[in-house]
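Consider the record:
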Amino acid sequence: DGSTWLHTVCCAFRHNHAGAGRNPELRTLFYRLASFLNIPVHAIFVFDGPSRPHVKRNKQVRAIPHWLATIFQEMLAVFGFAKYEAPGEAEAELATLTRHGIIDAVLTTDIDAIVFGATCVIRYPEPPGHFDRVGVYTDHVIASAAGMSHEDLVLIAILSGGNYDVSSIPHCGIKIARGVSQYKLGQVLIRAFSTKSQREFVDFCHDWRKDLRRVLTTDLEGYLGRVYPAVANSITDSFPDCDILQKYIHPITTFSSHSGTQDVATTMTSQGGSGYHTRSLQPSLKMLASFCKNHFGWDGDAAMAKMRATVWEGAELRLLCGVSMSCRFEQSNR
């Protein structure tokens, strides 16, 4: 999620910016990309697009592009990494790419992408660059170990509050929502939302809310550990919000029929990616050196030393991987 990277580095330098040197945010992004260059992965950076939600976590989302976005995308191109702008939220786009088998995993600072249906999420390592210290979450493991499906996760989000509705049902936290999800009300709700007309879904929700209140006031299977009549009484007749369900279940992505974009292969190719073949390009060392000179003031022997320490190993790795892939292709066609 390229947009998250931008916001993260800017928050890190909110204080003491003057003492952090020249272009500290961009320099931090450079070192992060250099660490990616040193591992054998094809990284695709996806950015939030014009149809992303206008409000998240009760905060207005800025409609104008991030001030670092253009120069960061220029740096991505010099490094040889694929990039493109999603029609909506980058997280939803990346989750959809995993479901279609175009990418293997979503690398992110949290696991919100799982709620969008991502099949595999890797949490960004702390400290950054230590890729042997990552948490990996797959839909299969979550289903088998925790007994939670994608529908259960969506239900937990709308009950306890998520990006689109932080309050949701008053006093219904994650623990209560998790217990409710074990009654499999999420599967029933999402199946109805996906198959019924709007009028039919409104009628369905009348009975579904009765079931939800009954679960909270009786807890017949003991999943909650106790009853929560106050929470049940706080459920309004407008719950659940159809707009919020739509954002979780059918978010706007390149695959959406109403997204107003072409297919994902064309989008990735036209914006710097490589279609369904998510191949990275060899970094341009000459252009990287020029970029660093212009934006960081690195020049002469000092620039050579920094490039040797950060970029050369990764560039060689990419070159060797390219030769290896080429040899395999030639052998398979003999």
Residues 198-218 form the longest helix (21 residues). The chain has two domains: 2-144+254-320, 160-249. Residues 160-249 form one domain. The chain has a mean pLDDT of 83.
